[in-house]
């Protein structure tokens, strides 16, 4: 354990801390020493051990209660040499003692064996944390200083608040209302009716749910109100239907939020943010726009912000803005960004169906089309446009019979049955023109309501939540893509138009919003030097503006492709084109350093797209027959895809999970061009898919990366992708990748796993199950990757850096607690007392902070320069976070990535973490550009996206899912073959 927080010099303990029962925190810091100290040991010190020091300690973590342990298995190293690679450490960095190299007391189960065993196991345990005690998020270690200083503008607007007494009241509405829009209308009407007579002249700030906030005390502690709500349905009818309903509203005192707590937090004198107080102010600023706009999450949309734009297929987009109040270093900030979302076009259902499915004649619609229509329209509100007034209904289904044959019994004449078509003719005098169409069903199956499609109009302002197709996405991006100067102007105009400072509710709470974007001090980090093979014309490159090229360069470690094949499923290509395509691609690969056999294993094959399954299996069978006796296998299959999209996922699933074939898919339109740049890009992907490296950070070769180069370090990337909205049973997909080389940290092995629907915590990081023969078996993604690292490098990881993508702020503590605990348990299951220090960083791309240049010092797209980093003013008041724009913009406004260091036992300084993250962004395998998100997290996203393809074939057979404890049943992913997992197959 650490002996506390000492100084950076002499003494026992530096940057240490205390360990918690759940996860050792800080008791680890640079345990037993300060930076550069003596005696206790620090960076380079002795005794306690520090960076490169001798003895125990250094930046090691504390200890936890752990399961019964097994030692690392004996490694089976498969080293890949790197040019000018220095000799590996064998002392502090990589102990080779018997305690770390002894074989497991029980044989290590392969992942395929484990997954097969899980089907037979009695209980699959999602092991809970050993303690529920919350972890403390890492504090900021200081501010970065490296780089050229610049000033940027951020779309954050300073908010100032007067010291007022705030009151929180609970609200209940009876009968219960599920629509937030209706709830807001009720409270808005109550406020207008009773403000002076019963509310003491106070304005009400309402959150749309159970809470009302007031700047001052109401003249009662509890009171009931009766509200007769009159609403006009927004149906597009010239005679909207007027609804009147009576509601009982009860307002009751709940609490008194304290603004002083917020001030204490903003000044660093209180650790935890007073969420209730921030919530009050956020609701105040959102109350008025919530009444007048369509609310989607934290965004507001209205046709008043611009005419809706057509996306095609019955979908349109509305303009609006995102708004969020957050505490930052400069005080309270209102983050505002322009936004756009897709909505249903307010058109007749028949017109929508024709547009959505591109049907000129609805008579041609098939039963399969109507099954799709039912899925698309379920939950959509429509207005029946006949009679005196329009009335709204929510679609629950579609009838199996057309309206002229769909019979029902009249309520007032139980003996008479009548068709829907006949009913509307008799009651409304309407002669249906599309009586061959099925009816829309509203209500439930027990008491359905049938409505003719041609008389139903989609109600205005309904968000389209289904997945947009490729053309719609392109249209939306084209319509909303703005250069930085245009987006900055749009944001400023939006803020001015919102008139926050003249809003009565905002003024009543003493809130003032500055109208100017804030200026922020930033720095432009230097780009790293990259190393290529010394036999190329250039063995070292210094990227400019986040870009470089492969001219006169060879991959630093070219892979080997002795046995390969090619198949084309495209009919548009000339007969000889696939052969020429392969010839030029092979030549490019060879010129870049890949040892590529000039001829395929057998002649290039051509097949019809409906023969994908059999063709791929035949290729595999033939390759096994030829190479099997020699103990070899097919190393690469080049596939020219069919002309019609939709086969990629099926091909990857068959190749990677069934046949164990590494494949490279190519679009037929690209194959036709025979473009040199395209061949270069494909060569980059092929090289890492056959075990090579494209480039390496020069500092990695020279062992000059702080912290990472000092001791064997494993870098993880993790992500969870969730099903599209509307898919309420499909599992979420978790992916974890980890570096398999040190000190280069460029090769990443990936593992994927299915888990409960929309579950964000990665459930399979560590798991254990009971085997009838072997007893308790330890397994999980972390453990498997640790063992793979050991086998690949002949080293045991002494540090862990974990980049975790896709976590929102509200999930920080839960994800950190559970996933750090899983990491600890996985380590402890490998070896007694094995607890390497961990740095856990959340990577956030889905935020709305934008940084704009204040001078002409920009890239070619007009964006801020690659390497621009911000860790002041708009960042967290006390925690360790920063915004990094690591890439050069292509079009539109660049989005910096937000990195939040939640846990740091390796004690990175701000400069060390920012520089490492920025430099890693230059090692992404698929292009010669720096990328916007750190590659481990990027690779995890690619792996999870790939695994989604594995499930599409069985999407209708998903099992039940559950959230929470107990046994969780989810649809299993097919297992990726071991030889495929050995390489970066997801690239």
Task: Spell out the blueprint of helices and strands.
Layout: H1 98-101, H2 111-120, E1 124-125, E2 148-154, E3 156-161, E4 166-174, H3 180-194, E5 205-206, E6 211-215, E7 222-232, E8 242-255, H4 259-266, H5 275-292, E9 294-296, E10 299-301, E11 309-312, E12 315-328, E13 331-344, H6 349-356, H7 367-377, E14 381-384, E15 391-402, E16 407-410, E17 413-419, H8 420-428, E18 438-443, E19 448-452, E20 456-458, H9 470-480, H10 484-498, H11 504-508, E21 511-513, E22 518-524, E23 530-531, E24 540-541, E25 560-561, E26 564-568, H12 577-591, E27 595-596, E28 605-606, H13 612-627, E29 636-640, H14 648-659, E30 663-666, H15 668-673, H16 676-689, E31 696-697, H17 698-701, E32 713-721, E33 732-739, E34 748-755, E35 767-771, E36 775-779, H18 781-793, E37 799-805, H19 812-830, E38 838-844, E39 851-853, E40 868-870, E41 880-885, E42 897-904, H20 910-920, H21 935-952, H22 978-981
Parallel strand pairs: 25-27, 26-28, 26-29, 29-30, 32-37, 37-38
Antiparallel strand pairs: 1-35, 2-22, 2-39, 3-13, 3-21, 4-6, 4-8, 5-6, 7-8, 9-10, 10-12, 11-12, 12-13, 14-15, 14-20, 15-18, 16-17, 18-19, 22-40, 23-24, 23-31, 32-33, 33-34, 35-36, 38-42, 40-41, 41-42
Helix pairs in contact: 12-16, 13-14, 14-21
Family: Belongs to the argonaute family. Ago subfamily.
Pfam families: ArgoL1, ArgoL2, ArgoMid, ArgoN, PAZ, Piwi
GO cellular component, one term: ribonucleoprotein complex
């Amino acid at each position: 354990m650490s002996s506390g927080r000492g100084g950076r010099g002499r003494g026992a303990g530096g940057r240490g801390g205390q360990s918690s029962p759940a996860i050792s925190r800080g008791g680890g810091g640079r345990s037993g020493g300060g930076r550069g100290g003596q005696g206790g040991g620090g960076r380079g010190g002795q005794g306690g051990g520090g960076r490169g020091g001798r003895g125990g300690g250094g930046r090691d973590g504390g200890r936890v209660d752990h399961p019964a342990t097994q030692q690392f298995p004996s490694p089976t190293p498969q080293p890949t040499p790197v040019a000018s690679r220095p000799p590996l450490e064998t002392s502090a960095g990589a102990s080779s003692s018997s305690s770390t190299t002894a074989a497991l007391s029980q044989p290590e189960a392969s992942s395929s064996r484990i997954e097969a065993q899980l089907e037979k196991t009695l209980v699959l345990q999602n092991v809970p944390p050993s303690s529920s005690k919350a972890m403390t998020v890492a504090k900021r270690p200081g501010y970065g200083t490296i780089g050229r200083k610049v000033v940027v503008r951020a779309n954050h607007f300073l908010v100032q608040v007067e010291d007022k007494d705030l009151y929180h009241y609970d609200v209940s509405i009876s009968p219960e209302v599920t629509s937030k829009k209706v709830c807001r209308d009720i409270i808005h009407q109550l406020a207008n009716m009773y403000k002076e007579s019963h509310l003491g002249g106070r304005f009400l700030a309402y959150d749309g749910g159970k809470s009302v906030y007031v700047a001052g005390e109401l003249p009662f502690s509890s009171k009931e109100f009766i509200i007769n709500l009159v609403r006009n349905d927004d149906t597009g009818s010239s005679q909207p239907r007027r609804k009147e309903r009576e509601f009982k509203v009860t307002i009751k005192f709940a609490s008194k939020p304290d603004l002083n707590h917020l001030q204490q937090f903003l000044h660093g004198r209180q650790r935890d943010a007073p969420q209730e107080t921030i919530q009050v102010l956020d609701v105040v600023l959102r109350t008025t726009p919530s009444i007048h706009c369509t609310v989607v999450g934290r965004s507001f949309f209205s046709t008043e912000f611009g005419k809706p734009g057509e996306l095609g297929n019955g979908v349109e987009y509305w303009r609006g803005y995102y708004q969020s109040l957050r505490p930052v270093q400069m005080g309270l900030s209102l983050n505002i960004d322009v936004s756009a979302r897709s909505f249903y076009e307010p058109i007749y259902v028949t017109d929508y169906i024709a547009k959505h499915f591109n049907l000129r004649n609805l008579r041609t619609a098939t039963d399969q089309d109507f099954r799709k229509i039912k899925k698309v329209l379920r939950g959509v509100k429509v207005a029946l446009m006949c009679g005196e007034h329009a009335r709204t209904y929510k679609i629950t289904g579609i009838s199996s019979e057309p309206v002229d044959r769909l019979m029902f019994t009249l309520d007032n004449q139980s003996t008479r049955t009548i068709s829907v078509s006949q009913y509307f003719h008799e009651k409304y005098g309407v002669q249906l023109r599309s009586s061959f169409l099925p009816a829309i069903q509203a209500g439930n199956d027990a008491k359905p309501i049938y409505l003719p499609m041609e008389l139903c109009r989609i109600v205005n302002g309904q968000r389209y939540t289904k997945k947009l197709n490729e053309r719609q996405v392109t249209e939306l991006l084209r319509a909303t893509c703005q250069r930085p100067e245009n987006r900055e102007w749009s944001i400023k105009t939006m803020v001015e138009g919102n008139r926050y400072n003249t809003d009565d509710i905002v003024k009543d709470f003493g809130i003032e919003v500055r109208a100017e974007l804030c200026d922020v001090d930033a720095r432009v980090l230097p780009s790293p030097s990259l190393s290529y093979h010394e036999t190329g014309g250039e063995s070292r490159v210094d990227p400019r503006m986040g870009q470089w090229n492969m001219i006169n360069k060879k991959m630093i470690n070219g892979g080997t492709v002795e046995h390969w094949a090619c198949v084309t499923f495209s009919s548009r290509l000339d007969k000889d084109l696939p052969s020429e395509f392969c010839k030029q691609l092979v030549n490019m690969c060879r010129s870049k350093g890949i040892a590529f056999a000039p001829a395929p294993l057998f002649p290039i094959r051509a097949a019809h797209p409906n023969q994908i399954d059999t063709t791929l299996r035949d290729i595999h069978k033939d390759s096994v027959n030829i190479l099997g006796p020699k103990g070899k296998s097919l190393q690469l299959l080049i596939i020219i895809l069919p002309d019609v999209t939709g086969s990629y996922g099926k091909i990857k699933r068959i190749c990677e999970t069934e046949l164990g074939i590494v494949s490279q898919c190519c679009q037929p339109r690209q194959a036709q061009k025979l473009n040199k740049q395209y061949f270069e890009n494909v060569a980059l992907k092929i090289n890492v898919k056959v075990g090579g490296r494209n480039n390496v950070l020069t500092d990695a070769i020279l062992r000059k990366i702080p912290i990472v180069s000092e001791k064997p370090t494993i870098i993880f990337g993790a992500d969870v992708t969730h099903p599209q909205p509307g898919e309420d049973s499909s599992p979420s997909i978790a992916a974890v990748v980890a570096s398999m080389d040190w000190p280069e940290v460029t090769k990443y092995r990936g593992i994927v796993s299915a888990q409960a629907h929309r579950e964000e915590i990665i459930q399979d990081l560590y798991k254990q199950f009971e085997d009838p023969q072997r007893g308790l078996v330890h397994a999980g993604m972390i453990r498997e990757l640790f063992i793979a690292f050991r086998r690949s490098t002949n080293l045991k990881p002494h540090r862990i850096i974990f980049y975790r993508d896709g976590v929102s702020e509200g999930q920080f503590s839960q994800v950190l607690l559970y996933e750090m605990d899983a990491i600890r348990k996985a380590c402890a299951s490998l070896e007694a007392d094995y607890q390497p220090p961990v740095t856990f960083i959340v990577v956030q791309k889905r935020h709305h902070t934008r940084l704009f240049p204040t001078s002409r010092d920009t890239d070619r797209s007009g964006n801020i320069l690659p390497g621009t980093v911000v860790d002041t003013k708009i960042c967290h008041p006390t925690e360790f976070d920063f915004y990094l724009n690591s890439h050069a913009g292509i079009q539109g406004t660049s989005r910096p990535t937000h990195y939040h260091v939640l846990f740091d036992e390796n004690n990175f300084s701000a400069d060390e973490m920012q520089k490492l993250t920025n430099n890693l962004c230059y090692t992404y395998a698929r292009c010669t550009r720096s990328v916007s998100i750190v590659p481990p997290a990027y690779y995890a996203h690619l792996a999870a996206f790939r695994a989604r393809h594995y499930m599409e074939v069985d999407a209708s057979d998903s099992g039940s899912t559950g959230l929470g404890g107990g046994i969780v049943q989810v649809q299993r992913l097919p297992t990726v073959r071991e030889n495929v997992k050995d390489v970066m197959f997801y690239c």
